[in-house]
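Build the 3D complex.
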Amino acid sequence: QQPVQSPQAVILREGEDAVINCSSSKALYSVHWYRQKHGEAPVFLMILLKGGEQKGHEKISASFNEKKQQSSLYLTASQLSYSGTYFCGTEREGSQGNLIFGKGTKLSVKP
Amino acid sequence: KAGVTQTPRYLIKTRGQQVTLSCSPISGHRSVSWYQQTPGQGLQFLFEYFSETQRNKGNFPGRFSGRQFSNSRSEMNVSTLELGDSALYLCASSQVSSTDTQYFGPGTRLTVL
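Done.
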C-alpha cells in the first residue's frame, strides 16, 4: 500500500523551513527519503529504521514515529539547491526489500 | 568510484516487441533493484536481485522479468510491450540490503509506440 505524502507541493523563499510528511497504514520496518531533480535520478537523503537507527546526511533531519507509522523530513534554512521532488519510500514489516514510494512532494525554493 | 550505469539511455519500441535493459551497479555492490517511474503512478518497485537470485518482487505482470549475473550486473526484460509500459526505468544498487544506501542510475527512457 502506497504511503501518503503531504503536502503535494510547497513553495518557499530561501531561508525558510519546510516539513514533508509521509504516512502509512501498515506497520513499517523502515522509511527512506530521496530527492529527485527534474531529469535526474533520485538521490538518497536518509533511512530511518524501526528502533531508532538513522543513516543519512548530516544536514538533513527526519523523524520516524513507529506508533503512528509516520515520518517527517525537516528542511531548515532552505537553499535554492533544495528544489526538487521529495519521495518517501517505505518497507513494511515482513516485506523488507520491497520499497514502496509515495507520489512525491514538489518543493520549489525561490530567491 | 564509478556510479550506477544504465544502457541504453533512450529506447523506442513498438507494441508487441520485447526489450532488454542493462544495469551495471557500483563496484562491490551486490544488490540491484529495478523501478518503473511514470507521471501517473510515480516510482514503483519491480524487483530486487542479490547474488544472482531474485530476492523481492513487486506487483508487476510476468511480462517483466530480470536476472543478475555473477559480476552483479543486471538486466531486465519486458516482453510483449504495451503502450502503458512507456516509462523511465531506474535501477539502484546497494551493498547488501535494502537498508543500505541505494544509489540510482540515470535511467532508461522507454517509449512504446
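The interface with chain B takes residues 2, 30, 32, 34, 40-44, 47, 49, 55, 87, 89, 91, 95-104 of chain A (CB under 8 Å).
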